[in-house]
Design brief:
The structure is a single chain. This protein is an alpha+beta fold and about 170 residues long. The chain has five helices and ten strands; from the N terminus they run E-H-E-E-E-E-H-E-H-H-E-E-H-E-E. Strands 1-9-10-6-8-7 form a six-stranded mixed β-sheet. Strands 4-3-2-5 form a four-stranded mixed β-sheet, with no helix packed on it. It starts with 10 loop residues before the first strand and ends with a strand. The mean pLDDT is about 90. The structure holds zinc ion (ZN). The site of zinc ion (ZN) has 7 residues, from helix 2.
């Protein structure tokens, strides 16, 4: 298993504990954002206390959303590793599920996006702007194909590593 490669600061966490674990996220906006705010990068709008998709109202304040901020900094919140012989054989199909899951989440939540997909011979690493998107995609893959799913959480930086092998 990949446990040995888990970086310092991460510890295993049960899925049902993850919600209580989330403490702070330095990329979450501190204080109150002016409403409405529109992100000049992606067009997401901060309105009624949350980021959402829509048409920017006239006079909206410009402000980078946390997802674009992370993308700019190359600082993912979620890391999902997919590997194993079953994965290799069914890679295309499984990656379609990964993308479908992201599209479904992103349509509702502008801050949940895939940042990057790093493809190597032995594994694929999917990085995300939100820990819950990595968790969600991992669970979707596990639900569809079984295999083994592990979570390692770093509470200091609110980072999540999800490892699926099959
Ligand atoms: Zn944005």
């Amino acid at each position: 298993m990949g446990t040995k490669s888990i970086p310092v600061g991460f510890h295993p966490v049960r899925r049902d504990h993850l919600w209580q674990e989330q403490i702070h996220d330095s990329y979450k906006t501190k204080g109150k954002l002016a409403e409405p705010t529109v992100c000049p990068q992606c067009g997401a709008i901060f309105h009624e206390g949350r980021w959402q998709w829509g048409k920017a109202p006239a006079g909206a304040h410009p402000g980078i959303c946390p997802a674009c901020h992370r993308i700019h900094d190359h600082f993912p919140a979620g890391f999902l590793t997919l590997e194993g012989p079953f994965f290799q054989t069914n890679r295309d199909e499984i990656m379609r599920l990964v993308h479908n899951e992201e599209q479904r989440e992103r349509a509702e939540h502008p801050l949940k996006r895939i940042m990057d997909i790093e493809d190597s011979d032995s594994e694929v690493l999917v990085t995300t702007t939100d820990i819950h998107l990595a968790r969600r995609i991992g669970e979707a893959v596990h639900h569809a194909y079984q295999g083994e799913l592990e979570f390692h959480y770093n509470p200091d930086e609110n980072l999540l590593r999800v490892h699926w092998t099959h």
